[in-house]
């Protein structure tokens, strides 16, 4: 047995009311009604405020209300209860209007038999239920559209909405808003090494901790990846954002228990404050983001407030990036060459190719000023490819000119070996691209050497080693550059098929003068030899250094003593000169 349908009948005409009561009694089967009958609108509204009904049967002409007004006032108090309107014989238009204004249906008095009335009421209830369900479904959908599925935090969309509201309020009420950008430190490394599942759970745990740290009026959101944002709103002392930021950092620095393992994480936070750091959503977000990058640069696990100087630097960098793109298009990136000399014979055995940026006015810019930017923006990939191509073509030209074959050494950035470096053109793969260049130019692979530093192994290590091995298998040689200054140098030696160690300039500088530097250089040389590698000293500037290196059995040297990096024509002259002397 289903519960009887609770019907509120609002009808002032006693005859009509009796008739309806009779009609409803005739209705058989499952449709049973419990009837509440009132004759005035104010009584109806009173009932609606104190009781729940399934459906309302409403006469539009009442002593205290008339026409559509009766409907609209009832509707306003009905909180979703469906209404079926009762009309007189000639009220077709008003009945139609009533349905348009929110009535579920209408019945013409005296024309409705029991079945019609019952069906109309039942359908009204059913339709209303469906509408309510649909509304709930839409709410769920709206929640999902506004929240991040992984952490349940508001997503980017909702974050922007809330920030916009907070700024508007703050402007009217003369309050403050602080926006914080939180980025986990080295999250990508963690994700790569421990797997995405662990990464996901860490993100969820971080979200939980953010919820704990924040007050109810604050918002924490996840923009995507390992990027979270916080909005603080209210009256704020100058150091309040700093205190909250520190609380956030402390909360994240507590070990996370995932899978019974302690996992350690840190984050970097950038802060911008309304009104001093920005007047609108975009500016506030951009500035907090910029400050976050500064926090990363300042060694991670710290927070930084936005300052206008950051903006200037960012603009300069953007300008520079644009310039660098243009430089690539207009062949302003050129290659200088620095000879590598074999100590034993005094012969030039190789040339290191070093990128230079030559401005239209002839000014030469050193790589330290544009390689880091190229790496960050991904421009290093096309740039590096260009350098490989020019160096190989130059080496081929030397061979054609009758100069005894030498190797050309090209520096390769870690980015160029990564699976998906930003900015990499579709289809770029060093394993095919570099050998392709050699073939195109007709240079034997053994005359190309690639110099890599350990930053290669810091990201996508496995993939980088694969790439390097694949290139090695095709005959390309490898040298480990700047050896001794990084912290994973030993790991390197184990896995990379390199045939050369380049001793970093910092050890060479004091060689023969500082016993410790001398000892380190000596150890590196000995180690290289026992691993069947050649040792090359970088930055040799004096005869004393050269002598000392010779006595330590270093194989090759490179440095100002012999020659600075020089333009291609001068490099050709150096080589031709050497040929003449040996003849
Ligand atoms: P690196 O590969 O270690 O190159 C050696 C650097 O030492 C060169 O600086 C060279 O000019 C400098 N050098 C050579 N001999 C001496 C010396 O006797 N004394 C001193 N004080 N310095 C000496 P450069 O050309 O400014 O290049 C700097 C760095 O930029 C390179 O260091 C390399 O890491 C990077 N780089 C240059 N070209 C490229 C390139 O095409 N691609 C990539 N990825 N990096 C490049
Ligand atoms: Mg180098
Ligand atoms: Mg070097």
Overview in brief:
The protein has about 575 residues and is an alpha/beta fold.
Give me some keywords for this one.
583 residues; binds magnesium ion; alpha/beta; binds ligand C2E; single chain
Describe the structure in your own words.
The structure is a single chain. With 583 residues, this protein is an alpha/beta fold. Helices cover 49% and strands 21% of the residues. An 8-stranded mixed β-barrel has the order 15-16-18-19-20-21-22-23, surrounded by 4 helices. Helix 4 links the parallel strand 6 and strand 7. Helix 2 runs parallel beside helix 3 and helix 7 crosses helix 8. It starts with a strand and ends with a helix. The structure holds ligand C2E and magnesium ion (2 copies).
């Amino acid at each position: 047995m289903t519960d009887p349908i609770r019907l509120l009948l609002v009808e002032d005409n006693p005859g009509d009311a009796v008739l309806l009561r009779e009609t409803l009694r005739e209705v058989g089967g499952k449709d049973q009604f419990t009837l509440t009958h009132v004759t005035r609108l104010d009584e109806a509204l009173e009932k609606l405020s104190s009781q729940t009904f399934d459906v309302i049967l409403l006469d539009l002409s009442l002593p205290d209300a008339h026409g559509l007004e009766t409907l609209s006032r009832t509707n306003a108090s009905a909180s979703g209860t469906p209404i079926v309107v009762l009309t007189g014989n000639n009220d077709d238009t008003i009945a139609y209007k009533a349905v348009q204004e929110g009535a579920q249906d209408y019945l013409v008095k005296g024309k409705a038999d029991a079945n019609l009335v019952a069906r109309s009421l039942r359908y009204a209830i059913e339709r209303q239920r469906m509408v309510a369900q649909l509304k709930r479904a839409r709410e769920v959908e709206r929640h999902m559209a506004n929240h991040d599925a992984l952490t349940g935090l508001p997503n980017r969309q909702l974050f922007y909405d809330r920030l916009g509201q907070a700024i508007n309020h703050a402007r009217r009420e003369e309050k403050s808003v602080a926006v914080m950008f939180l980025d986990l430190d080295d999250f990508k490394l963690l994700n790569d090494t421990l797997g995405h599942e662990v990464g996901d759970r860490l993100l969820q745990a971080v979200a939980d901790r953010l919820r704990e740290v924040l007050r109810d009026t604050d918002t924490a959101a996840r923009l995507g990846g390992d990027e979270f944002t916080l909005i603080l709103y209210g009256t704020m002392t100058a150091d309040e954002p700093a205190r909250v930021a520190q609380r956030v950092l402390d909360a994240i620095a507590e070990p996370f228990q995932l899978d019974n393992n302690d996992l350690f994480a840190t984050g970097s936070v950038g802060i911008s404050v309304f009104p001093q750091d920005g007047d609108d959503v975009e500016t506030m977000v951009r500035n907090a983001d910029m400050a976050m990058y500064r926090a990363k640069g300042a060694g991670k696990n710290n927070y930084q407030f936005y300052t206008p100087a950051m903006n200037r630097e960012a603009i300069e960098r953007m300008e520079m990036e644009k310039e660098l793109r243009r430089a690539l298009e207009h062949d302003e990136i050129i290659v200088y060459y620095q000879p590598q000399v074999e100590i034993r014979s005094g012969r030039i055995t190789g040339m290191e190719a070093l990128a230079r940026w030559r401005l239209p006015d002839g000014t030469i810019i050193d790589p330290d000023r544009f390689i880091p930017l190229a790496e960050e923006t991904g421009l290093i990939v096309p740039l590096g490819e260009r350098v490989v191509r020019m160096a190989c073509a130059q080496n081929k030209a030397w061979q054609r000119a009758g100069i005894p074959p030498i190797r050309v050494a090209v520096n390769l950035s870690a980015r160029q070996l990564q699976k998906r470096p930003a900015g990499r053109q579709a289809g770029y793969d060093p394993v095919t691209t570099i050998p392709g260049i050699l073939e195109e130019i007709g240079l034997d692979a053994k005359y190309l050497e690639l110099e890599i530093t350990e930053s290669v192994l810091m990201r996508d290590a496995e993939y980088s080693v694969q790439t390097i091995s694949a290139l090695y298998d095709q005959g390309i040689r490898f040298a480990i550059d700047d050896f001794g200054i990084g912290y994973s140098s030993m790991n390197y030696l184990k896995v990379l098929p390199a045939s050369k160690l380049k001793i970093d300039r910092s050890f060479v500088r004091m060689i023969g003068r500082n016993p410790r530097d001398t000892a380190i250089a000596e150890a590196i040389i000995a180690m290289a030899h026992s691993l069947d590698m050649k040792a090359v000293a970088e930055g040799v500037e004096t005869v004393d250094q050269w002598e000392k290196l010779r006595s330590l059995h270093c194989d090759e040297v490179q440095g100002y003593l012999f020659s600075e990096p020089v333009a291609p024509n001068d490099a050709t002259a150096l080589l031709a000169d050497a040929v003449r002397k040996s003849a």
